[in-house]
Amino acid sequence: MSRKRKEILRKILLVYLPLALLMLFLLFPFYWTFITSIKPESELYGKTVTYWPKKATFEAYKRLFTEFNFLKAMFNSFVVAGSATIVSLIVSLLAAYAFSRYRFKGRRILMAMFLTNNMFPTVLLLIPLYTIMRSFGILYTPLSLVLAYTTFTIPFSVWLLNGYMNDLPQSLEEAAMVDGATRFQAFMKIILPIMTPCLIATGVYIFMTAWNEYTFAVMFTNEGNRTIPVALKSLIGQLGVEWGLMTAGGIITIVPICIMFFFAQKRLVEGLTAGAVKG
Amino acid sequence: MQHKKNSIVPYLLVAPALLIVLAVVFVPVMKAISMSFQSYDLRRPNAIQFIGFENFVSIFKDPLFWKALTKTLLWVGFGVGFQFLLGFILALLLNQKFKGRGIVRAISLIPWCTPGVLIGLMWRWIYDGNYGVLNDILLKLHLIEDKIPFLAQKATAFSSVIVTIIWQGIPFFALMILAGLQGVSQEMYEAADIDGANPIQKLFTITIPSIKNTIFVTLMLRIIWVANSVDLIFNMTEGGPAYSTQTLSVYIFSKGFSLNMGYASAMSLILTLLLSFVAIPYLIKTFREDR
């Protein structure tokens, strides 16, 4: 065997084959979810398992919107995730700017506080928040979920944005301020435009976590304002197990989020690994 | 440019984020601490009162607590362990040059942006004892002779949910490690080539030492996330059958769901304390790096 062929064989065995197996493992569940969503009832619960539907149908998708008002759940999720994203981004950007550009008393303690917040178990906050929201009468409103989500989105965003901002040299704003711009103008004209891709990446991550969150959502919503993850679960409770509907709902849920995520992932990883890689 | 030391501006900038976080994190944590010393059961709101350490005493006598604690250790140990191993392998593979690498890398991330509920339900359908595809595949490969009700029997339920959490965590590890790998200088590998090092030696003497910080941070984050995850198990098995898949987080969630808030709070404080053994080294490390 020539050297070149040996090299190719080696690459197939050591790279392509294991990669194909791993990707098969990672992606098969999605293939299966999609296939299930377009199978007619008869094929779903038939004697033989089919790997491609003999007769594809979009009946489940239609029923999801006509019989189960999935659009309402999508709207609720959109409102909650959107609000959580906007609120978290604004307050976190201000805080991150202060941490990155000012040296002030208590700075390190405050930063440590934001970082520590990320470490609290969801269940630790879930229970007291439930009783607090209840006594304020905001339980079962979108506001309760938005507030609950800020428990992890704000600390995370402050930390991430602080990292991005530390990578921007101070000389950028200094130059503008020497030219007579105020600090506010320098921030708006220089920092903000450069930071936009980072803000988008952080925003996508916040939106994704809020869109996908279940533990708070199932405790803090009722029929009228439940979000997608809760609605998906409820599809299972009502009439036995409706796998066709559930998988159709699943596909609708992940498509928009995956598209957003693909565009943001590179920046996001840069932010997540910034501290780790440098250290 | 030196900033004025005593300016009030930075405090004003931090204030909004700080106020929200104080209200939604610190107040609840304090409340959780106080609830854990009360018989705080929302089904019996008139009987709420201070009971000292009674909740904690009952927890330590609760066999389900000890069982859940063991399950949590196994869940985190095997779950994060294999996520790391397979994620590392995937990162090494994705670090090779081949056509379509960008696409493969992007696609491999999909499990990361999938909601935990959906992951739980998808896998529940795959594992299904009657119509599940996994049984069909194993039957066709002649690896089994009868269908296995993966999630419905004690012998297989816990390993089945662990496989699912491994599946979920591989992309995150791969992505983080890949970012680390791309920062390793090529010169070191070239030098090692000249010395005649084999790939395994290079892996252990160059690659792993160079990315040990990334590995550390990713492991810490992942341990905390996996230990806290409720949605996946809850939507696959609700902790059953016979509590065989009930981790501490799931147990606390069920207690909270049944409105026994005092008991649940006390348990979540114990979980927090246990997790702080992981969180504190991470916090110290991250903090030291930030100038």
What do you see in this structure?
The complex is a heterodimer of chains A (279) and B (291). By secondary structure, chain A is mostly helical. Chain A folds into 2 domains: 3-44; 67-278, MetI-like fold (Orthogonal Bundle). Chain A is 79% helix and 0% strand. Chain A is built from 12 helices and no strands. Chain A has helices at residues 3-37, 41-44, 59-66, 70-101, 107-117, 122-136, 142-166, 171-178, 183-212, 215-220, 228-238, 243-278. In chain A, helix 4 runs parallel beside helix 7 (142-166), helix 9 crosses helix 12 and helix 11 packs antiparallel against helix 12. Chain A starts with a helix and ends with a helix. Chain B has 291 residues and is an all-alpha fold. Chain B has one domain: MetI-like (MetI-like fold). In chain B, 70% of the residues lie in helices and 0% in strands. Chain B is built from 13 helices and no strands. Chain B has helices spanning 9-35, 54-61, 63-94, 101-107, 116-127, 133-140, 154-181, 186-194, 199-210, 212-228, 231-236, 248-257, 261-289. In chain B, helix 12 (248-257) packs across helix 13 (261-289). Chain B is globular and about 75 Å long. Chain B starts with 8 loop residues before the first helix and ends with a helix. The model of chain B has no long low-confidence stretch (mean pLDDT 89). Chains A and B meet through helix 1, helix 4, helix 5, helix 6 and helix 7 of A and helix 1, helix 3, helix 4, helix 5 and helix 7 of B.
CATH architecture of chain B: Orthogonal Bundle
Q: Roughly how many Å is the radius of gyration of chain A? A: 24 Å
In whole angstroms, how far apart are the ends of chain B? 18 Å
Name of the CATH homologous superfamily of chain B: MetI-like
How many structural domains in the coordinates of chain B? 1
* Main sheet specs of chain B: none
Number of DSSP strand runs of chain B: 0
What are the segments of chain B in which pLDDT stays under 50 over at least 5 consecutive residues? none
Class of the largest domain in chain A in CATH? Mainly Alpha
